[in-house]
Each structure stands twice: as structure tokens, then as C-alpha cells.
Amino acid sequence: MSIFSRHRRVKIHKNRSIDVVRASVQKSQTADWPPHCAPNCSFILNPDNAAYLWHRNGFLKLDDIVAEECRNCKVGKFQGENMSPAFLAVFAVILCILFRILNVSSTPQIPQIVCKDGQFMECFNKIAPMLREPYIPTRLWGFSGHIQTIIHSIVGRVKCPWPLGERVYLSLTDGSTLTYDLYQPLITSVEDDITVAICPGIGNSSESVYIRTFVHYAQCHGYRCAVLNHIGVLDSVQVTSSRIFTYGHTEDYGAMINSLLKKYPTTNIVSVGFSLGGNLISKYLGEATRPSNIIGGVSICQGYNAVVATQWLLKWQNFHRFYLYVLTENVKSIIMKHRHVLLSDDIKQRYQLNERDIAAAATLPELDEAYTRRVHKFTSVKDMYSWSSSLNYMANIRRPMVFVNARDDPLVPENLLEPVKQFSAANNQSLYIELANGGHLGFYEGGLIYPNPVTWLDRALVSLIGGIVMSHNDLLVAKRTAETMSMSI
Hints:
alpha/beta; nine-stranded mixed beta sheet; 15 strands; 37% helix
């Protein structure tokens, strides 16, 4: 039998020590003991006078004993270098959850294409080979729509350039001051005079990283770019009326288009919109007759139906409410930044605004109820959302359109993609592109951890604009040929 004496602290590795119970054991008692049937003691002296510590997996040889009194335990506890089965199990579960979230086992897929018009599609097949090739996201995290979306919102793009341009100021009829930034092409060997009129996402501007990256890439391919700065977003431009940007008012974008046509009367314009901007350009092209200089539009990651999309974001599962909170705080910060104008006593009295309700709003519907729908004189938030949704104007679009979405976009429910698929399947000069991955405006590609500086979206957008220009030129040639033949007859 082992005779327990007093507790000791045993040093097992550098400065790591543990509390054990020291025992005195006779040599004859320990000589024939196998490790798995040793007595219930923590510390013994073997026949070779070496010190051993017993734990559930066997003996651990100790090199040193530190004589420090321990009064907190009755038996020794081992916490050594070997991992216990429970720890390994927890570690394995964490790895499985992480791999599940990151979708590391996923494989790259070719974009899904919906297009009725074969001649229209042929123009993109010639100039946009990436539509026939698998989109390869960044290996470690690119298959997760959440990670792509979060990295886009925090980082934007890697190695982002800062293109040089001029800022144009416009005074609108309601007293608002609107600005847009104008960037000239970096190469002049391109025959066509094309201006890309860009409408950024909610709370974004020409200074947003993803906008700057795309503008520079488009400049390098011979395109002039004009970027709308949503009213209230830029710190350097003061708000001069009672409003900021909204989800469905296209007057700001229309004012930029009219200004561009005054500067460049013969230019052809391709409208490009990101997220909220995609909704705005689609609504702009569908709600009224527009200048003939606009030869097409490209919409990226818009939600099409604000009523359904907002109801979906109000749900708690899959982090929807988190994204809605971020969007709400973004818009609220813009309002509060200009509250000396937007929430002046005169404005609050005129529109029955309560600053406390605005500051306390936790979701976009609450913020829009407290501020947006009152300033823009809507009877309800639902009416404003319905009026703002591009889906209700899509049937009236008379320009070539390209729509790009990702199935794993955490801000756009997959069921909202069906109407635009049906629209592209039923109308000529309409193309719908759906990627399995990409998140919301992410579309990072290449690399294991560090993605390529230019995303799949940047490359695809330049090619899609080229496809619209090619289709426009082919129609002009066909029209002129038909006119020539009719005159000869």
C-alpha cells in the first residue's frame, strides 16, 4: 500500500507546474506493477528511484519536484501535454463547424445563364469568356457568402488604386446639392466614346474602395466613368435641403445623366448599378422614356423587391438581422451627421419628425417610419418600399439589360431571383447571370487566403459593358444595311 504524505507541486515543463500528492512506496511493491494497474496514487518512486506521475493514460516521468505546499486539493490532477479525448472531440466539432461555414469542400461552378436572345448572348460569348468558365473563389474562405460579404464591407478590395478625376457640383430644383465624380479614360485608342454612369450601393460614393477599383480598371480599358455621390454620404459636401438619398428616387441619377449629355452630347452611356444602385438604374430605365444615348444597363446584386427583401432581413436566422442592423446604422449615421440641417426645428415641425425615434430606430423599417417616408410624403413604409422596387418597373425597360446575382448573397433571398430569371427568359436583349458564390458585391477570386487585386466582378463588368457596346454596334450596322437595301430597291 502507498503511504500518502503531504501535497507537493511538481514542475513538468519549464514554468508549468501542477499539484500532486506525494507517496512513499516500497520497491518490492512497485517492481511488478504494470502501468495500467498501479495503486490509486498520483506520485510514486519506482525501483530506479526515478519520479513518475500517474494519470489515466499511464506514467509520465518527471525531472524535477518543486517543494511548494499545496492546501487546495486532496488528490493530484494532471494537466500535461497530451490532449484528452474530450478536448480532441471539442476541437473536431469546432473544425467541422468552421469548415461547414466556410464551405471549404465546395467546388467552383460555371455561372448559370438565362437569356432568350441568342444573337444578344453571342456578343457576350465573344468578349466575356469568364461566363463559360468556373468562377474560382479564394480557396479558404471564398466559398462562404457571409465571409465574402463581410470582407467586402470591411476591406473592399486589396491594393486599391485612387483614380484621379474631377468633382462636378449640381444644384437641384429642391435645393439639394448633388455631386458626381468624372474620370477620363487612360487610353485613347478606343474608337467608341463610351461613358459608364455608375450608381453605388447604399451609403457609398466615388470614394468607396470597390468603386475606385472598378473605375480604375474601366479607365484602363478606355471607358470614361461618372460616379454618383449619394446625397449626404460625403463628409466634404454639405446637405443643403431636407433630404438625403433614398431607395427609389431616380431624380439624382437622372440629373447626372443630363449633365453628362451636356458635356458629351455624342457619347453612348452604359448604366451600371451596385446593390441599391442596381435598383435605381433599373427603375430609372423602366419608369419613363430615357435619352437615346443610353444603350444599356448592368445591375449587380440588387434585391428587386424592397417589401419582400426587408421582411426577409427582419428574421433572426442566418445573421439576417445583423446585416439589417449594419445597414440601419449606416443610414442613421448619415442622418445624424447632417442633423443640424435634416433635423432642424423647422424641418422637424414641417414633417412631424421626432429625433428620439430616429436615434432609437433599430431596423430600416423603423428608421424609414420615423424619417424617410415622412420627408418624402408617403402614407406608409410599405407604400414607399413598393414604389421604390425596380421589379414593378422592369416590364417597361426598353434597353438591353444584364443582371448579376449570387445565390449565397446573405442580403438577397433566393426566391427574389426568380422574377428576374423569368424576365430574362421572356424578353429579348436581357441577360441574367447567377453565380453559386460571391456573396454581396464580393466575388473575390484566386489565391488560398489572399485574393487577386482585381475581382471576378471587375473583370466581368468590363466585359459585359463591352458586350452591350458590341450588341449596340451590331444593331446599328444591321439597321444601316437594311436602310441601304430599301433605298436601292
